[in-house]
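Here is one chain, start to finish.
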Amino acid sequence: MSILESISRCGIGIGNFCGSGPFNARRGGLLWRRSLWGVLVAVLVALGSVGMAGAECIDYGEYMRWVGGVAVPDTTNNMVSVVTSGTHAFIADYDFGLQVIDIANPADPQIVGSADTPGDAHGVATSGGLAYVTDSVGLQVFDITNPADPQIVGSVDTPGSAFKVTVSGTLAYVADGGSGLQVIDIANPAAPQIVGGVDTPTGSARGVTVSGTIAYVSCGVAGL
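Its structure:
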């Protein structure tokens, strides 16, 4: 039985595992913590199978430990979103745009690059050598092939205030606040184009993920 299966059997959902305590976002084998001081913290989790000898529950605290952290510039509003790609973490850092952190050594992460965004950076996704950052203006596209010097290569304004973004193929899906879900063609990163959109009648669109042909949009207190 895996650690996460055991946690589930104990009635401790992933939301509790990562969200109700100091941890609030899971990325592969790392849990990322957003603190009041805008600190990126990596906690290593052993996700291998564990022989349970018939036991249904385990103390999952035995399988994680503090590894390291680094402060990001925005210490007032905190970092908003983080994704990892290879040996780098990419952070949407609100007033301070996109921050790039070298995480090759998780015990000593280092900020190696940054780029401003026209508005407050809310979300980030990566695909290939590009980072897609949503801010209060719209979608900004950055060339991150040189992580030390990310360069904006394209952008498109959205009708609302863009919060989070996910990328699937040649399309970016943006949770655009009061303007619902916006679908953006990013086949040409230098000239992204809005190709569709739909209102979210239950509330302001704040988050989005895509699986197959279905987009799942979170709408704050209104739910999914």
